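Q: Given only this backbone (576 positions), what sequence would you predict?
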């Protein structure tokens, strides 16, 4: 049985700017903020597929109608109708979709004209254009000719392309339950596997999030890079359908009452603790075949209290809207320390060397990469960010992550001053929210404040790093330079919004993805000697690769320097 990862009645366009809502008598095109509604009458709507600048609609009369986002009809084509047919849109490339039906077809936009060609008769996942991956049972056949066999008991039930065409996310079913498996599209290598609870699944392909309808009113969010559950969105009525925008920033939730509610997600989603709230009775709700003619949009109120859409279920104290937990934690702890000079690293007690960092609620207590604890906003009174050597070592990662944020912002501001990078509104908004969390109030960008904060965190790190770095060096043979690089590689998986900031620093000029050696060198302002040292990360005999802490894109996937080979953290690194 096929498991769809996109709704056939509720979809965001690829850029996330328009929400398409279907009902039996037509579709509504809505601005992603809930405004700008435009309704197009279409009789007998069966399914929709949304792309960047157009929407495709199949009807029960056997027609495929293509519409522009302004509601204008582009063309109309015959399509063999199948009441059980499924319209599966490609997530990358030009507009294209697979019509999975008794008479399957590939539907392609060729320079503005629709081309219909015979589709594969076995199960397939569209990739881009005429390329698709076939699957049967546990066998997966990739477009390049590679055949991959998953576990013998696994049955591939669906999936889609994620991470800008570098991977496939597969839903597999087996006697013990369901898994979500991430497979590299080029090599067929399995990158991640995580167990899924029962319920409807939706995937944000560009961001790499999976949303699972765990219970009648509960939607849980999973990060496919780190395989970490980020949190839960609680609706105020039973959920019958859901869509997630490709960038993973918000959900559109169709409720049993027929209304559509928008729920923002993103860096407000934090790991749940062991004190998770009790969920209502589990189980999905079957959508009514007779959807209401009118669609009503409600903005989600950012308020406290259980039951509001967009609320995060873990039992920690709230975070200011839009601020990541790491920013609040690090700023709060630094602000609460009086102006005391940092002691030398030799001041760390030898008795502490063998200790393991204490975990927090819901986290393995043997972990060094511990999820940030969410605390109240910092005292707004300005204080110099200096930390004493007596600061608990469990605060190390919080300060380390904020230091990475500050380094990345500093490099971005340098490039902007040289007019090498534009000021992107979404990045500026995110940085403004973090700045407000650091100083306790909204404020415009201040170069002096940024450098003052970076200096403070740089002073804090040596004392906090010493016991942790000693443990990692003793256990895994990692050098200080290795650990610093591994932190930067793992940072977007620990704090996902960092991926957007890193992308802004990299810029659009080259086809670079993720974290690479060139980006690490930029962020830490490395000299020539340090940049040469970073190349040792590519040495398969050294601990980072020998201990399977990272995986590096093959050389043939890079068309220039080895410094641009994408480096991804493995679960072995994230679970240290």
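A: Predicted residues:
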């Amino acid at each position: 049985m096929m498991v769809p990862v996109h709704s056939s009645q509720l979809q965001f366009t690829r850029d996330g700017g328009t929400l398409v809502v279907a009902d039996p008598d037509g579709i509504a095109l809505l601005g992603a903020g809930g405004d700008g509604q435009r309704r197009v009458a279409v009789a007998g709507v069966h399914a929709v597929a949304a792309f960047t600048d157009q929407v495709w609609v199949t009807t029960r009369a056997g027609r495929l109608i293509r519409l522009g986002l302004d509601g204008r009809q582009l063309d109309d084509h015959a399509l063999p109708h199948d009441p059980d047919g499924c319209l599966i849109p490609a997530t990358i490339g030009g507009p294209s979709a697979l019509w999975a039906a008794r008479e399957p077809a590939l539907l392609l936009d060729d320079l503005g004209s629709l081309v219909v060609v015979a589709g594969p008769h076995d199960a397939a996942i569209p990739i881009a254009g005429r390329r698709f991956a076939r699957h049967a049972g546990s066998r997966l056949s990739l477009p390049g000719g590679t055949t991959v066999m998953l576990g013998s008991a696994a049955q591939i039930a669906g999936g889609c392309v994620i991470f800008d065409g570098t991977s496939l996310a597969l839903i597999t079913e087996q006697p013990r339950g369901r898994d979500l498996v991430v497979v590299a599209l080029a090599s067929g290598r399995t990158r991640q596997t995580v167990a899924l609870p029962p319920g409807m699944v939706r995937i944000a392909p560009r961001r790499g999030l999976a949303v699972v309808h765990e219970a009648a009113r509960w939607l849980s969010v999973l990060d496919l890079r780190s395989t970490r559950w980020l949190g839960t969105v609680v609706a105020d009525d039973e959920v019958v359908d859901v869509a997630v925008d490709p960038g993973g920033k918000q959900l559109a939730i169709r409720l049993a009452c027929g209304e559509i509610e928008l729920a923002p997600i993103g860096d407000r989603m934090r790991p749940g603790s062991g004190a998770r709230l009790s969920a209502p009775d589990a189980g999905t709700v079957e959508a009514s075949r007779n959807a209401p003619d009118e669609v009503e949009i409600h903005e989600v109120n950012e308020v406290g209290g259980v039951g509001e859409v967009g609320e995060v279920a873990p039992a920690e104290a709230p975070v200011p809207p839009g601020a990541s937990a790491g920013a609040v934690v690090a700023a709060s702890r630094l602000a609460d320390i009086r102006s005391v000079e940092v002691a030398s690293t030799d001041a760390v007690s030898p008795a502490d060397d063998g200790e393991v960092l204490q975990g927090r609620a819901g986290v393995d207590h043997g972990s060094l990469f511990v999820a940030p604890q969410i605390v109240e906003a910092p005292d707004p009174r300005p204080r110099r960010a200096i930390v004493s050597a007596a600061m608990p070592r469990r605060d190390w990662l919080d300060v380390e992550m904020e230091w990475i944020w500050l380094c990345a912002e500093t490099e971005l501001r340098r490039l902007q001053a040289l007019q090498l990078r534009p000021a992107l509104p979404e990045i500026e908004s995110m940085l403004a929210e973090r700045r407000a969390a650091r100083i306790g109030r909204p404020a415009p960008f201040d170069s002096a404040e940024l450098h003052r904060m970076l200096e403070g965190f740089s002073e804090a790190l040596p004392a906090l790093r010493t016991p942790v770095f000693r443990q990692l060096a003793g256990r895994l043979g990692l050098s200080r330079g290795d650990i610093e690089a591994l932190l930067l590689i793992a940072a977007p998986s620990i704090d996902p919004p960092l991926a957007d900031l890193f992308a802004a620093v990299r810029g659009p000029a080259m086809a670079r993805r993720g974290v690479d050696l060139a980006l690490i060198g930029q962020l830490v302002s490395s000299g020539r000697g340090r940049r040469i040292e970073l190349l040792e990360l590519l040495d398969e005999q050294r601990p980072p690769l020998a201990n399977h802490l990272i995986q590096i894109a093959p050389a043939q996937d890079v068309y220039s320097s080895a410094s641009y080979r994408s480096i991804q953290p493995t679960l072995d690194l994230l679970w240290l």
